[in-house]
Amino acid sequence: MTTLQEIFIDINGANRYVTVSAKAEDDAGRVVLINLLDNGALYALPADAEARAVMIRPNGTKALITAQVIDGKVQLTMKSSMLILGTSQVEILLSTTDGKVITTAKFDVKVHGAQSTAGMEQSDDWSALRDALSKLSQVPAAEDVATLKAAVALVNGRLHKQAQTTHIQAVLAAKFTPTAEGTYEAPVYLSLTSAARQYGTALTLSSGGVKIGKGISKVRITGQAYMYESTDLTSCEMDLYIVKADGTAKRIERCIRTRSAKYETYITGPIVTAVSEGDIIKLAYIGKPDTSFINYNDGTMLNVTVEEWDLSTAAGADLSADDVLLNKWHTGTAIDGAAGSETTYPASGISSAFIGDLYLNLSTGTVYQCTTTGTAEKATWKYMTVLSNVGDGTVQAKHLAEGAALGNIGLNSITSAKIADRAITSAKIGYGAVEQDNIKEGAVTTLKIGSKALKAWHFSDSIIGKGLLTDALAKEITAATTGLAEVKEELAGAGETWEPVFSKAFDADTAANQRWDLAKPCKKIRLRMAVAGSVANSAAGDQTVYMNSYTSKCFLPNAFRYETATTKGAFVVAEIEIAEDMVRVLVNKGNISSGFNAANLMTGGAIWAASGVTFNIFKDVEGHGAIKALSFPTNGKTIGAGTQIEILGVAK
């Protein structure tokens, strides 16, 4: 169902007071039909005119909305993102193919009803995008394209920022029993040190609550507490607090009533509130210390979700190679102009070309650049250069087309001057041969390489470059190869650099949840842990270590072992490798008391008889793409003082 409101607006600014009414939460159901006047007389819009609405909303933010020109009138469809409670001011921006821009007098849009908190607010950084869009009706220059790309990338980054889900469910790691009465002056804060669910990294656990990260403007909060073992059925309450960096606390929501039974659940109403970086959201108890709180994940919890981001802090996001406005390589044989030519090629088969696009003729190796945007009939292509030795019997043009040439090449990244200067010419490389004069001292010559032979002493660290010799190549070199004395094992790892990415030594016992952030994203890591026991543990046990987050589907099963005494402990070695979307995990562990033998005894023929060896292959369903951190909740168990962690990694 659609409603239509028709208004009259003067392009010269002389305008009677005009107000359009709308309701919040409407979406595309209301259309404003705008008749344009020129000093009171109907104004005939040019046939090629384009219209956009510039809206200043009640909260001070601006939006640029595309409108339609139909039968000489401007038709503006009211989207839900435009309808924020209050009165907005709107003016119509008209642009034509000759680059001229005209704005009309303003009119008001008065919105009634409840304001949606889900709509994304736009920032004031919209002028570059508006200016660039106003030029789309004409053939843009190269600098206009660059401006438009930057503006679109910025908007794209903000959309990515707004679209991401950031949420945390903080829970108790163990049963909690207050030891003192909670009062308004001194509330008893529940120590929520575990995360049952977590999406994103801007919300983190800190000081028994949820800490607000950078760029967050508003959050939605709910709290729930399950009390049991209550002995005095008195009035009590569960409250939500915001604790500032200076220690001051403010209550923002409460649930208060008299307990009616031994077992009772209190739930605060959801609240959306403004926050600042560094704030900590906490769940507090006001009442007598005559009850306990269960540590079930669905019993006692604090849920915090980001509702609104400060989008002025969002960085621009690159567009993918398939997105609009990115220059591309095209290939074929239809564009075949001679040196100095710049013309259209209707038979090129390219439905849409943009300034800066490049074309490679697969037959001649000639490169052309698009100089006018348009269809095959309108786009013009300028002769740039010829890639020498592209053709039959040499480097095949199709290989260039199938390889890097088809990747994303930014505007002006390759110019004709660069192509001409760096082209491989026949003068530099003789056809099918390497001239003896070009073989420098130190090069591998036929004297050093015998027929079907490799001499081991010719391999040195300076000759074996990164990735030059792979494991596959090393396997081809066998003892039967003429002149081969020895091929070292290190050849298999040529091209990989292992470096320390994390280390930690525990000076004291701790029951805090662990998150070990690596110094850089890695494709491979090797983990070594020497875990000390603690008398604080009532029983020994194993704990799964997760890759990147507690919710990850990729983990090291039962990798971290708790022991019960300072004289006990465990050793763990593990290796993780991620390739594309698959993750390989190998874990080897054992405790000191039963897994190790003295070297002079070698019981069972082994010094370390590991008790738990696991091998798993997982799918990186969350799409982390790299190993960035290891983490796990302690669930109340204690890590003993003296525990040491070391992680080596190969950078992604």
CATH topology of the largest domain: Jelly Rolls
Helix-residue proportion: under 10%
**What is the number of domains?**
5
Q: Per DSSP, what share of the residues sits in E-state strands of 2 or more residues?
A: 35-45%
Radius of gyration: 34 Å
Main CATH class of the largest domain: Mainly Beta
CATH architecture of the largest domain: Sandwich
Question: Count the helices. How many?
Answer: 6
Uncertain ranges: 114-127, 318-325, 389-494
Average residue pLDDT = 76
How would a crystallographer describe the biggest sheet? 9 strands, antiparallel
Helix vs. strand class: mainly beta
DSSP strand count: 38
* N/C terminus separation: 53 Å
Query: Which shape, going by the Cα principal axes?
Result: flat
Note the quaternary state here. single chain
Descriptive overview:
It is a single chain. By secondary structure, the chain is mainly β. Helices cover 8% and strands 39% of the residues. The longest helix has 22 residues, at 142-163. The two termini are 53 Å apart. Strand 18 and strand 19 form a beta hairpin. It is flat, with a radius of gyration of 34 Å. The protein folds into five domains: 3-139, Immunoglobulin-like, CATH 2.60.40; 167-313, Jelly Rolls, CATH 2.60.120; 329-422, no CATH class; 439-495, no CATH class; 499-651, Jelly Rolls (Sandwich). It contains six helices and 38 strands. The relative contact order is 0.08.
